[in-house]
Amino acid sequence: MKMYKDVFSTDELLSDAFPIKEDGVCYVVEGKHVTRSTIGTVDFGGVDEGEGADEAESDTVTVLNVVDAHGLVETTYEKKSYLNHIKAYLKRVTASLPADQRASWDQQAQEWVKTVLADFDSYRFFTGASTDPEAMVVLMKTGEDGKTPFFYYFQQGLRAEIY
Predict the structure, then answer these.
(1) pLDDT tens digits, residue range 105-124?
(2) Which of 88, 137, 109, 138 has its CA nearest to residue 24?
(3) Contact in structure between 19 and 30 (CB atoms under 8 Å)
(4) Nearest-angstrom CA–CA distance, 70 and 14
(5) What is the DSSP letter of 56?
(6) Phi and psi, residue 152, nearest 5°
(7) How do residues 3-61 score in pLDDT, each as one tens digit?
(8) What CA–CA distance (Å, rounded) separates 150 from 100?
(9) Dihedral of CA 97/102/108/109: which sign?
(10) What is the side-by-side order of every strand in the sheet holding 12-15?
(11) Where in the chain does DSSP place strands (E)?
């Protein structure tokens, strides 16, 4: 199995258990909404004695398979704060590349970011489990069918490890 880890935080963000497609500077992964059992999980939260407390709790929960499998954490951004993050992140990634790859990659990444900013409200944002603010932010956008989630990862921000 191949695991893809963030080059800065070393968080596991992706694996080849999911079909991965290349799209310019990004890997794109088609996710799914899946239902999984919550039996056997431990909740240390307080007891809710409010309205509906007598109702039986559900034994299942619907999750995004990619998010669940890799412990991704959803976060929020306003357009300006995302722009600040992505500028700093791309600068770090570009600096880590061999000199002969920097200009081409940086130009392609900037173009991709422009497309994201043009449709900013259509995206959701996820970090790795460490929630490192300087690491990669994985983007998710719902497909044209209104249901299928697609996850976007900067290829140069990942390091593949074989297990």
Answers:
(1) 999 999 999 999 999 999 99
(2) 109
(3) yes
(4) 7
(5) P
(6) -120, 130
(7) 999 999 999 999 999 999 999 999 999 999 999 887 765 554 444 444 544 445 668 89
(8) 31
(9) positive
(10) 12-15, 2-6, 158-162
(11) 2-6, 12-15, 20-23, 26-30, 33-37, 60-64, 73-75, 123-127, 138-142, 149-154, 158-162
For the chain, the structural domain boundaries read 2-37+58-162
Written as six digits, the tokens of 65 are 């398979």
Tokens representing 38? Answer: 């919550």
2-37+58-162 maps to CATH 3.30.70.260? no
Of 1, 3, 26, which Cα lies nearest the Cα of 150? Answer: 26
User: Treating both helix axes as pointing N-terminal to C-terminal, what angle do 79-96 and 99-118 enclose, rounded to 10 degrees?
Assistant: 170
Residue 138 to residues 23, 57, 97: CA-CA distances in angstroms? 14, 31, 20
Which has the closest alpha carbon to 7: 162, 157, 161?
Answer: 157
Res. 132: pLDDT tops 90:
yes
pLDDT value for 111: 96
